[in-house]
User: Fold these one by one.
Assistant:
Number 1:
Amino acid sequence: MFPNDAQRPDPDLLLANVQAQDRKEARGKLRIYFGASAGVGKTFGMLAAACKLHAQGQQLLVGVIETHGRSETAAMLEGLPLLPLKAVQYRGKTLSEFDLDAALAHQPALILMDELAHSNAPGSRHPKRWQDVEDLLGAGIDVFTTINVQHLDSLNDVVGGITGIRVAETVPDTVFDQADEVVLVDIPADELLARLKSGKVYQEQQAERAAQNFFRKGNLIALRELALRRTADRIGDDVRAYRVEKSIAAIWKTDAALLACIGPRPGGEHVVRSTARLAGQLGAEWHAIYIETPSLQQLPGAQREQILQTLKLAQDLGASTAVLSASDIAAAAVEYARSHNLSKIMLGRGHRSWPWRTPHIRRIAHYAPDIDLTEIGAAASDTAAGAPSAPGLGQGGINGMPAKRRLWKYGWAGAASVATALVATPLFAFLDLANIAMLFLLVVVLVALRFGRGPSVVATCVSVACFDFFFVPPRFTFAISDAQYLVTFAVMLAVGLITGHLTANLRFQARVASHRESRSRALYEFARELSGTLQTEQIFDITSRFVQRAFRAKATLLVPDADGRLLAPEAGMNDSLAAALDIGIAQWAFDRATSAGLGTDTLPASKLFYLPLVAPMRTRGVLAIEPESLRWILIPEQRQQLDAFAALAAIALERVHYIEVAQNALVNMESERLRNSLLAALSHDLRTPLTSLVGVSETLVRSRPALDPAQLAYAHTLHDESIRMSALVSNLLDMARIQSGEVTFNLEWQTLEEVVGSALRASGSQLKRHQVITQLEPNLPLLRFDAVLLERVLCNLLENAAKYTPEGSRIVIAAKAHGSVVNVMVYDNGPGLPLGRQEALFEKFTRGEKESTKTGVGLGLAICRAIVEAHGGTIDTCVSPEGGAGFVFSLALGTPPAMPELDLVQSEQ
């Protein structure tokens, strides 16, 4: 039965593989050229492959290639189509970055992306280049890329410890593991050092520094070993995936993966430690399992705790652990080894057993002749102790529940058979012997269902004896009158033993299925309850209730505040749980996303087990559990289910968090829309009377006969305040129009000098008590902008400078072409900007001085940013050369239309 079942493909697994394959075909293919360090030839190898494909007619595009001054690499780019890089402004500098939008628009079949771990400049769509690659793959574009071993997240600290240099740019290991192809580019350390000296890796000065630090021979050898091992691990994953896809049951000995089998006898720890040492010497992965049979389920609690502690030791030593339920130990061990492609099974030395019982090691050899078997000798301490033998796998403990607990089951089994004989005796005159034998077989089945295999054997033997004594003539004696009854006794004994064995197995399998169904139902109900939660308090109650029911434990959730500090629940927590709760341990588990407390290596003396709730985006809290028994934490299956509960709770907390974020965003949007509507309404309603006030004040100033000096001063004040209020209303109206998208831009090619001059004239009244200096670079090119709106930007910046600087201060307007943009600066020598609030100044209704007699409502800079960004530019604060405040905005250079040629006709004199 076992071989056929083991080789039969799992239909659910096959369906999952088909669905995964369909999703994979819709994505682009990722090939990674992987090396130990710079200079091994990753980029060159990638370009060589690209040139070959290009010659075959493959449509491809060079997204970004870093040649580092290597002429050989640069020569490989000849003839390949290049994607222009995008200019990104950062702190006054122009950086060239990969243009993701342009690449997606081109939609090539293949694109080359050098240096996968590169960090993009601020302002790019993604902070990391590998995230750009994910977008390309999602669009169905194949990608060739390169990466060094020190840029893998899991090896970053290891490489830093070897070389003394820890790089900041890393790539998640999942990107590497999910790549369709990994090409290892490898050369010996001496050859790489020779390339470095000849200038084929870095320029001369940079090469000298590299040779003194990173590029030491010992470092390169260690990095080469790491790269080879990581590639081998990746290939091992590919082998396992292929075996699953093709339903291959046979062991492929591509590596020395080990399986340690732990039994109930005391030498289990010795098996685990010996396997761990061998795995370390071979550099191989290893697993540790404990197979629980019906008889082993009767072990006393202390012995079961010892088995779980042994499994915990294996897990701490780096093993993947599991507890399996099966009636055939050898078959279960072989099935696990085949499913995980484990080529070597490690067992403790077998003990003496009954002659008719085949040792486990021989049965495993029979089931799997292709698997290597290693028998580990007993430890000296175990040999000296003279541990008693018992059934189990290898060196393990005794099958012994206490004698008193076992004997009463056997006593009940024998008593049931005797009672059946007494009940059937009055019926002897009415029933045939065959029917009476059926009654005894029924009792054997019932005993097997209730008490298990051992008591059923006792019931079978006692039943045969009672049948002979009470019913077979001559009655009430064990003598028999007919030899045929010997056959009856033998058949009855055999049927009873077989029936009891099968019934006990069925009972065991039913219990296992019941436990599995119970775990699945608990997960389903927990997920269903959490799916409808909208508040964090609901998640608290549901999680506590389900953990208490499923794990026989008291539990509570701890969630962080805005500063990441965990807060204890205010109410609803059990008194004993509240007394044992340690916020310090919980905070440690939260900060490191690692379990702590009971049953772990971190503060194991704690009464509580602290499990972090790790969601896809971040850790959302900590689940604190007080179990009734430590065993519930140590059993691998229970721990896996608890991890599943924690993951569901973490996702629910994250979902509720984003629901609150979405609700707040919706409220803010509605508030913003309402505010803009009110601004627009007020602006329209105020503009007409303000225009009238301006006109009346101008009329009063110019009236004839002229007003007396006092009245004229009032008229001038009325005029100035009306102009100021009119400008304020214009700002409000412009802000509302820009936010609503009602502004139509009149973009034309024109000179910057003209709009600067018009802005100075418009702001003349505010600037008359200041010294204004223009420093425009000669021969600035034409720019494409809306002159009216750009004049508003300059006016707001100039008026802002005039408002917050004392009389006589210097205000400078400067403009200079820089790369693909023109930077325009407005700065002064005044008191400067408030520290720490530079970015906040561009928000609406934010003023430079919170409490000030200066006029304004804080919209000027917000309008400037809205207008500049609508032109495709950026605006920010900057360091003033004069020591005061400074603002700089950039406008993109373009290609102005060609000027018409003028025919100059020179008249003859």
Note: The CA atoms of residues 294 and 508 lie 6 Å apart.
Number 2:
Amino acid sequence: MDSALTRFAAGYDFPLDDFQRRACEYLDDEAGVLVAAPTGSGKTVVGEYATFLALETGRKCFYTTPIKALSNQKFHDLVDRYGADQVGLLTGDLSVNSEAPIVVMTTEVLRNMIYASSRTLEGLGWVVMDEVHYLADRFRGPVWEEVILGLAESVRLVCLSATVSNAEEFGEWLAEVRGDIRIVVSETRPVPLTQHVAVSRRIIDLFAPDQPGDVNPELVRIAREEARFQRDDSRRPRGRNGKGRRSVSYGSGRFGGATSRQDRNGPEHRGPRNSPSRSQVVRSLRQAGLLPAIIFVFSRTGCDAAVSQLMNSDVVLTNGAEADRLREIAERHGAGLSPEERAALGWDRFLAAFCRGIAAHHAGLLPVTKAIVEEGFVTGLLKVVVATETLALGINMPARTVVIERLVKYNGQTHADITPGEYTQLTGRAGRRGIDVQGHAVVCWQPGMDPRAVAGLASRRTYPLRSAFAPTYNMAVNLVASMGRQRAARLLEHSFAQFQTDRRLGGSTASHRRKDEEAIAEYLAAAHCDRGDFTEYAGMRERVSQLEAEQARLRRGARDAEVADSLSALDPGDIIAVPSGPHRGWAVIVDPGTRGGHRDRGSRPHPLAMVEGRSVLRLGDGDIDSPVRRYAGVRIPAHFHPRDAAARKILGRSLDDAVAQLPELPERPARATVDAELADQIADLRSRIRSHPCHSCPDRETHARFAERGMALRRSTDQAVQRDARRSGSIAARFDRICLVLEALGYLTEGGAEVTEQGRMLARIYSELDLVTAEAVREGVLSGLDTPQLAAVLSTLVFESRPADRRRPSWLPDHTCEQAVTRLRSVRARVGRLERDHRLERPRDLDVGFAEEIYAWTAGAGLEVVLGDGMSAGDFVRQARQVADLAGQIAAAGVDQELARGCRRVLNAVQRGVVSMSGEDD
């Protein structure tokens, strides 16, 4: 029978797997489908069948991906299959054949189309959502849910996901909001995976060859032998005094690696050296025929260091012909790089390693460099890629072997064990379909490693999909504009985030509450007093405690908010009066501490300052316990460093000169007075307590203990009921609070029923600080700036420092920029206060860490200049594109013509050189 599926399958040189055929048959039934299968299993075949059906039936199919690199890869795949006239591409800054029957695009582009009711949506039959597990991503995830909820009912979804442990739950939600969705789950890897451990110069199977599931006795013996020469606490990090800490801060300790290098390699070291060097690992892989390989190292610096170590150890993995072909790939992609740019990028070092079959791959590389590495690896010429875990997501780069150097990684706060889901994601790259009979996963031995723990990690397949959805200001105005406020609120109640919340609340059963009610009754019976109603008496006592706690909380909260706002308004060079603590006196701000990485969201900044006596230190909560203000200002020496004595001396003189012109140090501010209304309530209750009959009972405190237990349980039960009620409508409630903020600022009409002209401007700004950006436009903060100045100020709205850059002081390039950013901080503080009043999370701080670089670039500086302070080329390009993206959004948002022209000039000034080269980044 010549069915559509038969004709489609004939285009492949391999038979379709059962799960692929079953999913395609569901599409024939006009149903949507969720396919959850391991990396490399071929689930994209199902998405490609949707594109085939679109051409067969005369309808359209949009193929969406989370990042531009994936969109470009899929675009070229489909062009090769169907021809350039049948396939289009839309990635925000690139539009090719957008009215074709098959269009590949990023998810953000489709979201924007839905909000704009684009005519391109007419005739749409299918939407393929590739890598739909990105729904759990904090930044990109909400867009997926906006698309799923916003598409017309007639559109069929084809959702392609990595293996997740709650696929059925996700499928149930999809069926609830999209209608007929069938679930296809396959946990069979297309290429079987064998697990190993690299110990010294050997590669040993993780599991016993003759007893699958049991740990290899050889590894257990190695662990025991190693343990004879280690302290009992060797799996835990050592304190400075040499003693093992009670709390483990390097993961759980089960995967080893916590012992310091000094302990391993110092004169006291005894016992076997089981941890392999990187060159030993690569040589062992080559000897065992396990190349090409991806070696995962959880830091960019570690990746670059690994390549350098392999180069220094004279590892050569290619022959002459392979090296020539690799050189051709590199020169073809890098043809647009100038000699100066090549020098800034260390091109010669990169090319030397690349031609020897070795390269790094991480977000710090230029997109064009990553494109070179990817092509070299996919062709099989490049033998070893040292990569961060980001390679486990996205583009198709399978290997014969995956090596994981450590099973502990830094997550931004602490060193933590990688999860079973992360392990599955990393090892999913092992095994090339149609090439390898088996894939291989190799874990490098670390001192103190427990092989049984490694086996447990390798055996589990837990990777739950958790929604990251949360309404934003931009989302709110777009939803209200397209469907009205009430309908938008109802739509958000159907989000996957709310679906999962409601599922979790199902565990709060009525039977538990009945037991609580019985216990409460018993406590109150035991508190019975012959002199009067002890429950009433205890209630008044409890109410006094609550009011006093509320009084303290309000006093503390208001003061903390005022202090945080005052600190957020500071700039480098501002002179302040430190109000308290051992450093009370005049100080000059070196770094305000408001950059995104310096503090947790919601906490106050801790500025770096020079205090009297010329010490440079961070001012803590004990130093600044009341709001501060700028009294004067001095210029911070260029490239000031706290350890540079000469720079400290210059700044100290400037501080002394400025202080000499100032009046006496102001008096320490008095504490805020207690709220009069609360104080009156507390006084009244205390009077009533003293006159209550039970107050004179000799057994008063005994009765009170039982009454307090019963009332505490009552309070806990009531709070649980209220918490469940709040959570059951948490998404819609947040949306309502957002709408109230938008009403207050004039982006929605009174009552929030319609979007105003200013709201339509906000609807075009897609940024984490969307409302702050819109308010800055309205207040003219961005007006009157030249191109480099505008680029520098815009960068503070999109840039967020990496942890490694947080200690590097950054400055604004000129006084005009400083003035604009000061006004911008005031806007951010005002928005933050309004959000606090509406119980919304306050926006993150502005971050000036990219201002100097983007200022120099848009002023015409070369790459070697902007990378001079240590920023990586990949970070620079990615951040520059974000600035350009925001400038483009503002220019198209209906702002005044002068600002629109200024933003377009920024866009043009940014998009040059390496920033405009292909090799798309996310």
Note: The CA atoms of residues 213 and 643 lie 56 Å apart.
Number 3:
Amino acid sequence: MHAVRRKAPAMPRSRSDKPARAVAPWVRTRLRTAPWAAASLALLVLVTAYLAAALPRAVDRYETEGLRHDIRNAAPRNAVLELTTPVPLGDDIAATLAPRVLQGQRDDARSLLPAPIRTDPRQSVHGVRTFKRVTGEDPWLPRPDGISPEFVLSSPSDLTEHAALRAGRLAAGTADAPEAVVTTKTAASLHLKPGSVVHVPHKGGAAPVAVTVTGVVEPRALTSPYWAVEPLLGTPALAPVVGEDVKYYWQAALLLSPDSAPAVLSTTNDVEVFFRFMPTADHLTGRDTERLGAALDSATGGPDLVKLRKAVGGNAALATELDSIVDSYRSMREAINPVTAVAVFGIGTVAAVVLAMTGGLFVARRDSELALLRSRGGSLTGIGLRLLGETSAVAVPAAALALGLAVLTVRPPGGGSGGIPLAPSVLAAAAVALIATLVLPARAVVAHRRPRLHGGRDDLLTARPSRRRTVAELTLLVLAVGAVASLRLRGTGDTGDHLVSAAPVLVGLIAASLLVRIYPLPLRWLTRPARRLRGVVGPLALARAGRTSSSGTLPLLALVLALTTAAFGGSVLAGVADARDRAALLATGADARIGGSVEWTPLPAGLTESVRGLKGVRDVAAVQIEYGVSLPSYQGTSAQPMSAPIVGVDPASYTRLAGRTGFGPFPAGLLAPTGRGGEDAVADTGRVLPAIASPAVAERLGSAPQEIVSAAGVFKVKVVAVRSTTPALDDADFLLVNAADLTHRADTTLLVSGPVDGAALRAAVTARSGEAKAGALAVELRSEERATYVDSPLQSGAERIYLGAIGAGAAFAVVAVLLSLLQSAPERNTFLARLRTMGLTRKQSRRLLGLEALPQAVLAALGGMLVGWATVPLLAPGIDLFRLALATTPGFAPLDSAPLRADPWSLVLPALAVVVLTGLAAVGQAWWAGRRGSIKELRAGDAR
């Protein structure tokens, strides 16, 4: 019998058998443990991502504003789209030219214009006109020089919406009895009134066609496209006939009624149907430039022109200058964008380095923690993923918030019309978030590839560059040399070559790498003589500077790049301002210029003294300018004809002016008076006047005296000096003589120096010349002339980008300095606490930390200045600031180029600011450490 085995009673479960409680999440724990560090990283990512996301939106905004500005501010006759077609032949011309038919053709043609072309229906006009003027035969019409007036016969639509009736009635009429209205200015100039009948010739030689004037209208806005496209419709003009004598005759317009339009076919064969469309720009963006150019090409000579011809009939043609406006905008954008890209690359690189420094700071602060984890079996993958979770939990929301702020603050122009694409801003913010997220885990994984018990000595004096670093530096050197060579040869015109735009950054990287390599040398040279100094602060500070961690290369790199970017950006802005100042000064010759609106207009008596007495006037130079004087040649009559202006000057005042402006200064003695001038010297044609000439004039006249025949007198001149420019003229060629030696003396221009008020100057001119003749003298101010060179939002937008880049570079430089000090702050606090136990005073503590931080700051400042000073002349041959400085193309401005030059203030001020800021930050750190107790820092083995 088998014994029955009893079951052992169930033992109570121990606590160890219970499910273990989940440990606190790593990311939440770390963020709650160090909230200020997380907040600082979030703030840095927020600012950096905002700048990165706002940049493409700001560029898109000012490009859109530039395109809209150029189209809106273009002359209506240049921007209008004018579709013309010959009048179709047929039996029923009146039906073909009926108002309803033309209205339908206009609407069809307007709907067929290719996108993105849009037009304003309120400014659209159509009708029938003579494109060759017809003669008015009535004897009572005014004839200033015996020439009959000529009229344009036109029947513009919607006249009542653009003009107000002032006398008579609106035109009605028929093809057999045409009626017309005229504008108030036309009626006054050609003696027309309601009831007047103007007879124009019949093309077949029959009886003249009689056009009855039924009313007088006044345009509501002569500057509107309706009237401005063809100004003759609203304003008559006196046209010259050039022959042996210049004679004038009137040109005007008779505004026929739409029902009278067929009558023009009886006057001439030069008749056409026209449809004018005024383009709008509110919907356009800078990205529509290529589409708009292609649409205009298609409408003027492509498939869309065929559609327009089918709509209006006949061999229609579309004429416009809008394509030239778009091409001018495109060329300016292509000239400005590469220059702006240089600033973008510079500030982007500095921001990336500062983000890398942030990761280095966090790795340094948690080095012992990470080393402990590795020594206890923590895997690189696990540590890297946990650190990735930490940084992504902070960086991603901050970048998303920055993207939202950029979208809210940088809005499209025109109240939101024409949206800005979001993709570039998303990519920029994502790039910042990616760098900020990956830099901490990447640096931690690299630093703790192998478990280690303690860290060895890691400073710049003992660190040896690895082979990988040497290869990377050589690669950067090759890229920098290639970029600089390409920039010098090709310039910034190739918008797709980003290597060219990165040339200053690459030069700064190479310079920073070189500075890091030579940094230990000056410290070693200074350490030995410092040992002989009394006191321990100096030698100890140098020794401490030499023991700086080799990770301190990133602050040096950030500072050098920031200073290089600031120097380059400041030089660009200074070059732009200098080009505008020089162009305005060359155009006016002085701070203000008073001269005749036509050539050879003498100044009123007493004007010079009145202007000299105005407030702000420092000097006045009166000159006599005679244009188009024929110049003889030392080669005789075989030389090609040549003419140039002759300028009679007072040597004393004009020399002072030339010296102030820098335009061809010369000693006053070169134009010493001969003592034989004035009306008494009319017969003395053999006298020889000393003259200063431009290079071309000097080459033509030669070294021997040559006879000059001019309105100012007949005399001989001998070139005594050659100058390329002169204040009185912005022309290439000139001849300066002493005004006292001229036979007929009459000042024509005043060149005023000093901050004179424009209103007061114009009032003085009006007072001396009288109200009737005030318009004969023009007053030009250098400040007003300079303002005309800043005409496009493209220019002002690019300048704001450069200003923003300089400001952001300065801010990132400050962050780099603070991060550099914060990285070593715990070790410095411990060191100061230990020294204070040995008797170091607070004053000595401040001096110690200040001197310790200065070597690297001074090295970065000197390096930044030298790199900036070398980069500007190195890259200057490939950068022309002309289109950024002047709102025109070369050849239409007083200057032909605007070269880049180094600006001393942009080199020196940022460098000094870095040194001062570093010293103040170090002293502040010492002051703060002195206020705290030393118990925590003196705990043995406590690394907190």
Note: The two ends are 74 Å apart (CA to CA).
